[in-house]
């Protein structure tokens, strides 16, 4: 074999080996990316989840905590609310509504039981009257049976005359008003908008509970 023949044989063997390598690399590429998109294979998901894993939601059918429910019915089974104060020539009138939010009937017969406290929650020297007179003449149904089924309401109207109030210290203002359906029943505390400018020795008239009828 001549020197030229040996050199040609070695060159052909090298080319064949190089082509075989190219074929192996191409086969690996086909396994990773069969569609030849150039994209890499997606990473396998972590078994424990990462920082971006969504937080678990509430269990299906979970019952909300009653303490978080707005407007939950008080333990007494009734709720007291006050309306806007109507002021005219020094005479004040404020509607007070008692709503039965419990599951049984509530029976009323007479006037609400009321206690007025100042900004420091100290009892004020206020005389609470059964009836609107002598403060003013106002329709008062007087004591009579009122039966409230769940969801029904009764109303009383509080009346008083303006008396001097220290606007800086709120002295003479009934900031907190404790109201019960009748004497001996537990009271609920409300804070009427603007307070009761009733003074230190004022009179507070009330009308008897009257059932609120649907329109």
Descriptive account of the structure:
The protein starts with a helix and ends with a strand. It folds into two domains: 1-34; 75-211, Immunoglobulin-like (Sandwich). The strands form three sheets. Strands 1, 2, 3, 6, 8, 11 and 12 form a seven-stranded mixed beta sheet that branches. A three-stranded antiparallel beta sheet has the order 5-9-10, with no helix packed on it. It has 215 residues and is of the alpha+beta class. It is built from one helix and twelve strands. The chain has one helix spanning 3-32, and strands spanning 78-82, 86-88, 91-100, 106-108, 113-117, 127-130, 146-148, 153-161, 176-180, 188-190, 203-206, 210-211.
Task: Write a brief structural summary.
It contains 1 helix and 12 strands, in the order H-E-E-E-E-E-E-E-E-E-E-E-E.
Outline: globular
Instruction: Give the integer mean of the pLDDT values.
Output: 76
CATH architectural group of the largest domain = Sandwich
The tally of beta strands, per DSSP, is: 12
Radius of gyration: 42 Å
């Amino acid at each position: 074999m001549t020197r030229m023949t040996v050199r040609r044989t070695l060159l052909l063997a090298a080319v064949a080996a190089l082509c075989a390598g190219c074929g192996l690399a191409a086969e690996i590429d086909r396994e990773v990316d069969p569609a030849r998109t150039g994209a890499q294979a997606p990473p396998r998901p972590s078994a424990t989840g990462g920082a971006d894993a969504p937080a678990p939601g509430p269990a299906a059918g979970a019952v909300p905590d009653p303490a978080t429910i707005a407007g939950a019915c008080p333990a007494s089974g009734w709720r007291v609310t006050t309306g806007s104060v109507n002021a005219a020539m020094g005479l004040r009138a404020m509607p007070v509504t008692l709503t039965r939010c419990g599951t049984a009937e509530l029976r009323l017969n007479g006037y609400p039981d009321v206690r007025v406290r100042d900004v420091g929650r100290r009892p004020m020297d206020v005389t609470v009257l059964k009836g609107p007179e002598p403060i003013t003449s106002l329709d008062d149904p007087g004591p009579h049976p009122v039966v409230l089924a769940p969801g029904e309401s009764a109303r009383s109207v509080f009346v008083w005359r303006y008396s001097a109030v220290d606007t800086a210290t709120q002295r003479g203002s009934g900031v907190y008003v404790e109201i019960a359906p009748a004497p001996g029943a537990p009271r609920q505390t409300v804070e009427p908008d603007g307070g009761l400018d009733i003074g230190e020795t004022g009179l507070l008239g009330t009308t008897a509970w009257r059932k609120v009828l649907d329109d």
